[in-house]
Amino acid sequence: MSKNLVQFIIEEQRAIAGATGDFTGLLSDIVTACKRIAHDVNKGALIGVLGSAGSENVQGETQKKLDVITNEIFIESNQWGGHLAAMASEEMEDVYPIPARYPKGKYLLVFDPLDGSSNIDVNISVGTIFSILRAPEGVNNPKAEDFLQPGTKQVCAGYALYGPATMLVITTGNGVNGFTLDRDIGEFMLSHPKMTIPEDTREFAINASNERFWEAPVQRYVRECIAGKTGPRGENFNMRWVASMVAEVHRILTRGGIFMYPRDTKDPKKAGKLRLMYEANPMSFIVEQAGGMSSTGRERIMEVQPSDLHQRVPVILGSKNEVERVVGYHLEG
Ligand code: P6P
Q1: What CATH number should be reported for the domain holding residue 113?
Q2: Whole-model pTM above 0.85?
């Protein structure tokens, strides 16, 4: 019988000197949160969780009921275990301190509880993205600046994909492994060991309606893909756009591809749409651990020094050779 996720992590942790089991306990609580979210997402209209919450998040985006519900699930499932010093979320402006009634731990958890939630009312796959950092030594009440660590400092990154199957994909820096939820026993079972991204691809993902706002290197890359066999690439390409980053990244992990949400001039104040701390960094950790590449177009995303908890970055990630090509076009200017 294949391993469940917690058994897999415990066996991995044994290989790490000094592992105290604290991390395994935290991951187990995150897994519980994802199982609870999978239940609510799967029941949807039957339990009245679809539609707008009638509120806005810190991003100024209208919150869906499930955005609020899933954020609360993550807090309830993770605040009590004694593994965390604090949490931060796309749905909360400030850091969430661990209540005094609970013990604190050495990790920081930052997450997007329901990414792609604009798809939830039309029954298209959505996901949860999370990233685990270490709290700075001796910091008992972490503030936002204590979260502002580059992606290279992540201890773990993962996503849950609420699709035809519910999956959880994680990395702790030792490759990428995928687990499928067996609803009969309520366990995520190892189903996709050692996931790797093919270095080449003929499939790109971008929201083409923004074409006129892109920078020239991205316009050039996409134009060449669309030109196909008669163009400079001499190959035909396919395009996908789910508008759910978790679904796009999972497709790329499974069969290759390049995903781009580049800088665009639609809103010059925004460096891109996707958020560094709880979308770009965790997905970049996973993609790099699977042999792919992740860049802003001008620098490795995991080396960006964060300046704000909710800052945005341009994202170009996926099959190594295609991301390298796009980065090369940026260097040519
Ligand atoms: P657009 C979802 O809102 C999200 O943050 C990502 O999951 C997704 O890739 C992107 O935004 C979709 O953006 O502009 O196509 O709706």
Answers
A1: 3.30.540.10
A2: yes
